[in-house]
Every structure is written in structure tokens, then in C-alpha cells.
């Protein structure tokens, strides 16, 4: 019971319920009684801790409520994850958006910028095409090698074409563009016979040149197996040629596809024989072995459109040649010995009269 | 809640001193995002952020109430420093040492404050356990009297004692038991 009394006193003291007198007495007692002092200290600490705990718990409760309130406030402010997402990534999104916008408009702008030159290019291209068309209008001369004979070539260069005998006396015809600007001309046939020839007549309009063997010891080619056809050939007639587009003789066959040549040129035929540079000046013969024309050229950029000068004009030139006093009259072959023969036999006979024309300058 | 009322740190502190709950609520809501961001970006969870932040606010609040805080920086910086300290400690307890903290704010040294707080927490923890061990009705009796400050008459009525003396006697016994339990476990480290 003594302890209970002491406890009452301590409590009253701590609560400040003592009168000043009592308090002074109690404090004096505490100073002298170590046990009591210890009890007071413990009691004070116990109560303080308990009180502190209570306050702390209250505060915690308060903060908890505040936190809940805050979350409630935030919830309507962030109705969905998009707001959070936006807040968190708006910088990134802004950067991405501006980059994409920049690239889109940059691309549009640069395309616009580049359109200018492209338009210019198309304009030039149209011109170029026109030029190409103009180029197309010129016949492509079928000559091997560099064909610009008008210019004086600094170095000797060899061209070649094809030619064929028109009379046994050593007269040979070829395209005049083959022998244009030539210093010296040699002809050679499949059998290996070589002759030096000189140009004795030229018809630029019809692109034909007459060559004559310049060898004094020359006698004759022998009887020509083909005859010249003066009349026009019919459309669709089968025709063939022999020529030297390369070092060996090459046979080409096709049909007469038009009675007029390039751009309605009535002095020529259009034929559907595959031709190559070197074929120029070759003979064009019909199925029976009649000479109907002289190969002259083809249309650039077009397949199967080759041209041959009609034989009538060749005959005309030969007549003109005969009129000039310089040469003896040509013995124009009148008889066609090939008409009944099969093509290989025809060719065998023909090939000795078809020459490769080699031009040196 | 009027925001303009607590625009400055001084106003907030003044509000807390006046036991204005709105000041506390304002303070709490104002700086939670900063601390939350810090905890979350240093391998913490939402719950941990809330926990640490509340501890920090308690440290601040109690120091203001004690008038023992000499604030040399912004409230924000102080709270951040305390929470940072507490979080580092928590990480260490979890066995995870943050090699590099993702700092978003400057901080001031607050070791003393946090240490004192931890000591208190420990003490309160022991007290809480002691009260727990005490059992009913002792616990409620003591809590009602010492924490909730109810007068002896109310307590006598509530617990159905015949008179206040019986209640007082009961309270005395309870307190003696609590004292025993509390001081058996709690040894101040100082």
C-alpha cells in the first residue's frame, strides 16, 4: 500500500497537481531518496513514451487519411493511364513528333527541290529524243569500224564492206559509203582471189560505186551466174544476200517487205533480212537468182528493217558509165543460170562473185 | 483547401504550429510526388514510398511541434534529405546497397534527426508490444487515461467499476505491470 501511495504522489507531482508546498517537499524527498528518484524517472519516461506513442499513432492515422484523400483527388484527375503515360512521355513524344514532322516536310521539300532538275532533264530528254529521231532519219551506214571518212583520219584505218561482180571484165559494184575517202581498195572473194581495185564511178544519190580491177594482167571473173532484173519485184518475194559482216561470207535470207525504202524512198526496197555492218554493197537476189538490188543500210533502232537499192538504178548507172568514153562497154549478164537450182548450189556458184571490199586510208 | 494560404514554407510551419490540419495536408500533398519519384526511381515500390514519406513528414512535424527544428533550407529539401536517409537505411536493411542513387534534389545532413527518430520508433515499438502483452482491460484502461486523457469517472463508468477508487487501484496495478514489461525489454542505448 505504501507503493500505491508513492505512485499517487508521483503521478500528482508529474501532473503538476501538487501545491507549491507539497511540490517543494516532494522534490526534497526525491533528492534524498534515490529509489524514489529512480521511480519518478521511470514513471515519467513510461508516461512520456505512452503519450508519444499515442500521438504518433494519431499522427499516422491523420497522414493515412491525408494520403487516401490525396489519392482520391488524383483519381478523377487521372481518369485513365493515358494521362500518366502522357505526363511521363510527353517530352519523348514531342521529340518524336517533331522529328517525324521534320522528316515528312523535309522529304516533301527536297522532292519539290529535286523536281526542278528532273523537269529540266525531261525537257532535255525530249530534245534528245528529237535528236535521236533526227539521227534515226539518217540511215545507218553498214560499215565496219570507224566510219567517219569525211574527216582526215590521222592513222590508216581499215573498213570493210561487200561488193559483187557486175561484169566479167572486172567491174564490181559496192555502196559508195563503203569506199568513201578511200586511198586504196582491195577486194577478195571466198576462193581467196585478191584484186586491187579503183573506184571509177560514183553515184552518191543512190549510194553506189563502181570499182574496176586495176590489175593489167587481169582477164576475167568468168561468166556471171546471175542476171539483172530490171523490173520491180513483188511484195513478199523471197530474197537473199551474201555478204561479209565478218571475215567469212554470211548468207542471209528474208522477204521483200516493202516496195519503198527509208522514208518512202522509191529507189530502194525494204527487206526483212538481218543485216550487220559489213553487209553494205552486197547483192540482193530473188529466189530464182536474179539480182534485184544492192544492200545499202538499215534503220537504226528498228528490227528487220533493212534497205537495198533497186537493181533498176544499178542498171541505170551502168548505162551512164558506158556513156562515158573512159571505159569499154560492160558485158551485162543476160542469162540466169541459177534459176533452177537449189539454194546451196546457187550459193556455191555465187560466192566466187561476191567480194569483201577492204578500204585503206 | 485554399492553396494560397500556405504558399510559403513559413506559412506551412506556422499552420502546423497552430495545429492546423489543413497545413499538414497541404504539406503532405505538396511534396509527396517528389519523394515518391525518388523512392520509385531507386528500386522502391508505391507502398514503400508512402511509408518512407510518412516517416519523413512525422520527423518534420514533430520537430516543428517541439520547436526543435532550425530550418536552414526549404521544407522540400529537408523532407527529401530525411527520406533519402531513411530510404538508404531501409535499403541497407534489405541487404541492397544502392551503389548510385538517382538523385533529383540536393540534400542537407539530417543524420541526427533521423537517428533520434529511429530511437523513438524503437521505444514506441517496445511500448506498443508491452501494451499488447498487457492485454485487456488494462490496455484500454491505460490508453483511455493516459493517451485519450479521459477522466477517472468516465473510465469507472465505462469499465463498470464500483467506484473511482477501484478504477484507480486497477489502473495502478496495470501501470505497474506495464512498467515491468516495458523496462524489461527497453534499454535506452544512450
Automatic annotation (TrEMBL), chain A:
InterPro entries: Peptidase_S1_PA, Peptidase_S1_PA_chymotrypsin, Peptidase_S1C. It comes from the Bacteria. This is Serine protease, S1-C subfamily, contains C-terminal PDZ domain. Keywords: Hydrolase, Protease. GO terms for molecular function: serine-type endopeptidase activity. One of its GO terms (biological process) is proteolysis. It holds the Pfam family Trypsin_2.
UniProtKB/TrEMBL annotation, chain B:
Transmembrane segments: none annotated. GO terms for biological process: DNA-templated transcription initiation. InterPro entries: RNA_pol_sigma-70-like, RNA_pol_sigma-70_dom, RNA_pol_sigma_r2, WH-like_DNA-bd_sf. GO terms for molecular function: DNA binding; sigma factor activity. The keyword Transcription regulation applies. Keywords: DNA-binding, Sigma factor, Transcription, Transcription regulation. This is RNA polymerase sigma factor, sigma-70 family.
Amino acid at each position: 500500500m505504501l507503493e500505491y501511495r508513492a505512485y499517487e504522489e508521483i503521478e500528482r507531482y508529474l501532473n503538476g497537481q501538487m501545491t507549491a508546498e507539497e511540490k517543494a517537499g516532494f522534490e526534497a524527498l526525491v533528492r534524498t531518496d534515490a529509489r524514489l528518484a529512480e521511480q519518478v524517472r521511470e514513471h515519467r519516461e513510461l508516461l512520456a513514451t505512452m503519450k508519444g506513442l499515442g500521438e504518433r499513432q494519431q499522427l499516422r492515422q491523420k497522414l493515412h487519411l491525408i494520403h487516401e484523400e490525396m489519392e482520391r483527388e488524383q483519381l478523377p484527375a487521372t481518369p485513365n493511364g493515358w494521362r500518366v503515360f502522357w505526363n511521363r512521355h510527353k517530352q519523348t513524344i514531342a521529340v518524336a513528333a517533331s522529328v517525324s514532322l521534320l522528316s515528312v516536310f523535309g522529304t516533301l521539300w527536297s522532292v519539290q527541290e529535286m523536281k526542278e532538275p528532273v523537269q529540266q532533264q525531261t525537257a532535255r530528254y525530249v530534245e534528245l529524243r528529237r535528236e535521236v529521231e533526227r539521227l534515226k532519219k539518217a540511215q545507218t551506214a553498214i560499215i565496219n569500224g570507224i566510219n567517219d571518212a569525211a574527216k582526215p583520219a590521222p592513222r590508216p584505218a581499215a573498213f570493210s564492206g561487200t561488193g559483187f561482180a557486175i561484169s566479167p571484165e572486172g567491174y564490181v559494184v559496192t555502196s559508195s559509203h563503203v569506199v568513201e575517202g578511200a586511198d586504196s581498195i582491195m577486194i577478195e572473194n571466198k576462193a581467196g582471189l585478191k584484186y586491187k581495185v579503183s573506184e571509177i564511178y560514183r553515184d552518191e544519190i543512190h549510194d553506189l560505186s563502181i570499182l574496176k580491177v586495176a590489175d593489167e594482167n587481169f582477164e576475167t571473173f568468168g561468166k556471171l551466174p546471175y542476171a539483172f532484173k530490171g523490173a520491180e519485184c513483188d511484195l513478199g518475194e523471197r530474197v537473199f544476200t551474201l555478204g561479209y559482216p565478218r571475215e567469212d561470207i554470211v548468207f542471209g535470207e528474208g522477204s521483200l517487205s516493202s516496195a519503198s525504202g527509208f522514208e518512202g524512198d522509191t529507189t530502194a526496197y525494204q527487206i526483212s533480212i538481218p543485216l550487220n555492218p559489213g553487209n553494205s554493197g552486197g547483192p540482193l537476189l530473188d529466189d530464182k537468182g536474179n539480182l534485184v538490188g544492192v544492200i545499202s543500210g538499215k534503220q537504226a533502232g528498228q528490227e528487220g528493217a533493212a534497205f537495198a537499192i533497186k537493181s533498176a538504178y544499178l542498171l541505170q548507172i551502168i548505162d551512164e558509165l558506158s556513156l562515158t568514153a573512159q571505159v569499154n562497154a560492160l558485158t551485162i549478164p543476160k542469162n540466169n543460170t541459177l534459176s533452177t537450182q537449189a539454194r546451196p548450189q546457187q550459193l556455191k556458184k555465187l560466192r566466187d562473185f561476191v567480194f569483201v571490199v577492204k578500204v585503206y586510208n | 483547401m485554399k492553396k494560397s494560404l500556405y504558399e510559403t514554407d513559413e506559412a506551412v510551419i506556422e499552420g502546423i504550429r497552430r495545429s492546423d490540419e489543413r497545413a499538414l495536408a497541404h504539406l503532405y500533398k505538396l511534396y509527396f510526388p517528389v519523394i515518391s519519384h525518388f523512392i520509385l526511381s531507386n528500386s522502391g515500390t508505391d507502398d514503400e514510398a508512402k511509408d518512407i514519406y510518412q516517416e519523413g513528414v512525422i520527423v518534420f512535424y514533430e520537430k516543428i511541434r517541439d520547436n526543435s527544428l532550425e530550418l536552414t533550407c526549404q521544407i522540400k529539401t529537408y523532407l527529401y534529405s530525411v527520406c533519402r536517409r531513411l530510404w538508404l537505411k531501409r535499403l541497407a536493411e534489405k541487404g541492397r546497397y544502392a551503389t548510385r542513387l538517382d538523385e533529383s534534389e540536393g540534400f542537407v545532413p539530417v543524420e541526427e534527426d533521423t537517428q533520434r527518430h529511429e530511437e523513438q520508433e524503437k521505444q514506441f515499438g517496445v511500448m506498443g508490444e508491452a501494451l499488447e502483452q498487457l492485454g485487456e482491460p488494462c490496455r484500454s484502461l491505460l490508453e483511455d487515461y493516459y493517451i485519450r486523457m479521459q477522466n477517472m469517472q468516465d473510465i469507472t463508468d465505462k469499465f463498470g467499476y464500483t467506484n473511482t477508487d477501484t478504477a484507480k487501484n486497477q489502473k495502478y496495478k496495470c501501470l505497474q505491470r506495464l512498467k515491468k514489461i516495458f523496462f524489461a525489454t527497453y534499454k535506452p542505448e544512450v
